Amino acid sequence: MTSSTQKWFRRLGTVVSSLCTVAVVASACGTAPDNGGTLPMQDPADVSAKVAGIIKKMSDADLAGQVLMPFAYGRSATDVSAGTAAGNKALAGVDTPAQMIEKYRLGGMILIGFGGNDPTAANQPVNNVESPEQVRALTGGLQSAAARLPADVPLLIGMDQEFGVVTRLSTGMTTLPSAMTFGAAGDPRLTEVAWRAAGLELAAVGVNVNFAPVADVLGPAGSSVIGSRSYGSDPKAAGEQVVAAVKGMRAGGVAATLKHFPGHGHTAADSHTELPVVNQTRQLLDSDDLATFKAGIDADAPLIMSGHLDVQAIDPGVAATFSKKVLIDLLRKEMGFQGVVVTDGMNMAPAMKVPPGEAAVQALLAGNDLILMPPHVGKAHQGIVDAVTAGTLPRARLVEAVGRILSLKLGFGQAAAPALSTVGTHQQEVAPLAAAAVTVLRGACGKPLVTGPVRVTASAGRDKARNRLIEALKRNGATVVETGGSVVHLVGYGDAADDLSAAAAVTVHMDVPTLLAKSTSKVLVATYSSSDLSMDGLAAVLTGKAKPTGRSPIEVTGLPRTTCA
């Protein structure tokens, strides 16, 4: 067993021990009042011994399966339609997700769901989440399949539940606003409470790994694929938010993932379709992009996702996913990260330039431990096995990766799931955060922003947010009309100048608010999110029932960060 793996076991013991000192994290060491989960404290030496014992019994094929986390077609682990079975046959040569786990001895599986505004939709070929009840049944079936494997360890079940524009499961859940909303609120205490609530609900549906928070610091150009997924442009403030998110999810029983290392926020291209170039100097990388990851590592973040990024200052021309200089020299040796490194989706364009088996091997050799969304499960699995047999992938490297994954499972994968009835019950914990983020960038502070009859309009596709705002305005005593009145106009993700309204007295941006620089409205407001709770907070500010305490976490040309000092 390698020294780095042993160090990770010791670090895991420190994490679990520290969790047990926090009352709200009883799920890590006792019985939590609202989730019923239990996970006994474990001595690092015991964890190390358990992992070593498990690995000793594993064949090369078992080890290869543990480092794979593919997607699968189907909203059930075992009951699939003919079309779903055909999708799984093309992906992995099996009919059902359960069969995929059993055939390839998989260590994990990712669940997918996406909406129309999702910038990650390009590599999401399946939508297998529908409701909390369905997801709980699906994850239960997946874990039952994993229980039949020789390893006898739980499955890592992941999801990109970032919230905001990347929200995999929204129906029935307490929906958090976007990361930029947290940045605007600027209160890590509220962030930690909100993410604990999200962690509890994810754990309740059977998800134990969340591919969030986004630790990317947003550069001046404002990467459109990252956008409001980022906490903002200030590395220190964003780092505080990242730490709070990691702690909150851990308290809820879910392992958080920092992404996209070493930083996607200063890029122009979209890594789903091409290889973005990071042109930051090494000095700027240290002060900007890497600062949030350093903060997350210090907070014992259990996973970091490598990005499909060409980092010119470190390894020009090589995607970070396949770069030892980025993942081993920088992340492991220089920054001291000992947790699990997971690739970004291997079905994204930069990774698809290499055949699935070869890509999986190259990713492992570069320092990744977990291969996410291989485009063909069978070829990825066989490629790893063949490389170990041929000696091109040292078995010790594979054992090291599996050791980290197993230690993660022992830390986060064995607690009993909270009751499903906890899902959708945490609005009160999240509402203060959404309300605190509302920002006035133009207009008076401390009084109602609209008086008399109000008419709410919106750019195309914003009906849900518009309807929620209308309801909230009425609850706050406003008179809402269909014609006439003072116009409050909503714009959001992907909108342009043509989507603004010249008639609007108030223009509200529900995503990255840079478009407000082009608005002529007398009052400009940012919520950074179109969530229900964000619209509730907006209504309270518009009617003067609440003070807008938010501060824009990014610069908007010609406008202050807030008019409320």
Word description of this protein:
Keywords: Glycosidase, Hydrolase, Signal. Residues 97-408 form the Glycoside hydrolase family 3 N-terminal domain. The chain has 565 residues and is of the alpha/beta class. 39% of the residues lie in helices and 10% in strands. It has helices at 3-19, 44-56, 60-66, 82-92, 97-104, 132-147, 179-185, 188-204, 235-252, 282-298, 324-334, 356-366, 377-390, 395-412, 427-436, 463-475, 532-542; strands at 68-69, 108-111, 156-159, 209-210, 255-261, 277-278, 303-306, 310-311, 340-343, 371-372, 439-442, 454-458, 486-491, 506-509, 523-526. The strands form four sheets. It has a six-stranded parallel beta sheet with strand order 2-3-4-5-7-9. A five-stranded mixed beta sheet has the order 11-15-14-13-12, covered by helices on one side. A two-stranded parallel sheet has the order 1-10. Helix 12 crosses helix 13. The chain is globular, with a radius of gyration of 23 Å. The N and C termini lie far apart (56 Å). Residues 1-40 have low confidence and may be disordered.
Keyword list:
6-stranded parallel beta sheet; single chain; disordered N terminus; 17 helices; about 575 residues; alpha/beta; 5-stranded mixed beta sheet
How large is the share of residues in beta strands?
A: 5-15%
**For the largest beta sheet, what order do the strands appear in spatially?**
2-3-4-5-7-9
The major sheet is characterized as: 6 strands, parallel
Q: Give the % helix.
A: 25-40%
What is the SS-derived class? alpha/beta
The separation of the N and C termini measures 56 Å
What overall form do the CA principal axes indicate? globular
Q: Using the CA coordinates, give the radius of gyration.
A: 23 Å
The total count of helices amounts to 17
Average pLDDT for all residues: 90
Q: Enumerate the spans where pLDDT stays under 50 for 5 or more consecutive residues.
A: 1-40
DSSP strand tally = 15
Protein name: Beta-N-acetylhexosaminidase
GO molecular function, one term: hydrolase activity, hydrolyzing O-glycosyl compounds
Keywords: Glycosidase, Hydrolase, Signal
Organism: Catellatospora citrea
